[in-house]
Specification:
Elements lengths: L8 E5 L4 H12 L3 E6 L2 H11 L3 E5 L5 H15 L4 E4 L15 H29 L2 E6 L12 H21 L4 E8 L5 H8 L5 H11 L8 H12 L10 E4 L30
Parallel strand pairs: 1-2, 1-4, 2-3, 4-5, 5-6, 6-7
Helix pairs in contact: 1-8, 3-4, 4-5, 6-7
Length: 277
């Protein structure tokens, strides 16, 4: 058992699979207690059962303030405090040319990718300010630090997460609360598999394709992002705030971008493990 997160308490939105689940497992391995928040009740409860007494599951929609507040309250009620809020829940969202994206798809996508992060920050701050300690982490994307690496709405929202991280980090520093983000590149999850191959369960093929695109020549996995989040959540990062840590095998420094996200004719909203939202 590690000690980098010993006796700390974290809430992880979108925690039932992919990066969220990988982070939950890594944090518990390192001594933390976690609240797994997700829409997927079956997968989320199964993960909490796997992790044992130091894990709880709550079904929550990050676009609903009462759900996010309940996830934070569950952490405090179950474990006595909140040390780390991880805003991870996300979708690819609306895809297509800027001339074709519907207002409804824009609103639904930004509600999950931006409002969800805002609500996580708000309710974490509610608990952390009286504690005079804590850290808030958000999962953005390489699409949040460069153009051409994601759909338009996704890109706008993820850039917003980077900006909000800087702004909220500036406000909360005086309360000894650190606010940072991680920007993953292509990571092998059911969501990226669905996007790249058309099938969420086709992760082996997705991994091969990601490896070909990777400047380092191999695929990134949820554990790679979990390790970045672990560093930022730990006391090793005690002097780091307002920062976005890019985890992308150097993709954003290679000058490579693509048009795949702008050539789709239909608006598509996909959530990890599900289609057809």
């Amino acid at each position: 058992m590690g000690e980098r997160m010993q006796d700390k308490v974290a809430v992880i939105t979108g925690g039932a699979c992919g990066i969220g689940a990988g982070t939950a497992r890594r944090f518990v391995e390192q001594g933390a207690s976690v609240v797994v928040s997700d829409l997927n009740r079956e997968a989320g409860q199964a993960l909490a059962d796997e992790l044992g007494d130091r894990a709880r599951f709550i079904r929550a929609d990050v676009t609903r303030e009462e759900d996010v507040a309940a996830a934070v309250d569950l952490a405090v009620d179950s474990f006595g405090r909140l040390d780390c809020m991880i805003n991870n829940a996300g979708i690819i969202g609306a895809v297509g040319s800027i001339k074709d994206i519907s207002v409804e798809a824009w609103d639904r996508t930004t509600a999950i990718l931006m409002r969800g992060v805002f609500l996580g920050m708000k309710h974490a701050a509610r608990v952390m300010i009286p504690q005079k300690s804590g850290c808030i982490l958000s999962v953005t994307s390489t699409a949040g630090v460069a153009g051409g690496l994601g759909p338009h709405v996704y890109t706008a929202a993820k850039h917003g997460v980077v900006g909000l991280t800087k702004s909220v980090g500036s406000e909360l520093a005086k309360h000894r609360i650190r606010v940072n983000a991680v920007a993953p590149g292509n990571i092998v999850t059911v969501m990226t598999s669905a996007l790249i191959t058309g099938e969420p369960d086709n992760q082996d093929v997705a991994a091969e394709m990601i490896a070909v695109m990777s400047p380092l020549g191999f695929s990134g996995y949820p554990i790679d992002v979990a390790n970045a989040l672990l560093y930022l959540a730990s006391d090793e990062a005690r002097y780091v705030t307002g920062h976005t840590l890019v985890v992308d095998a150097g993709q954003t420094t290679s000058g490579e971008a693509g048009e795949m996200f702008h050539q789709q004719e239909a608006d598509i909203i996909r959530e990890e493990g599900k289609r057809g939202m």
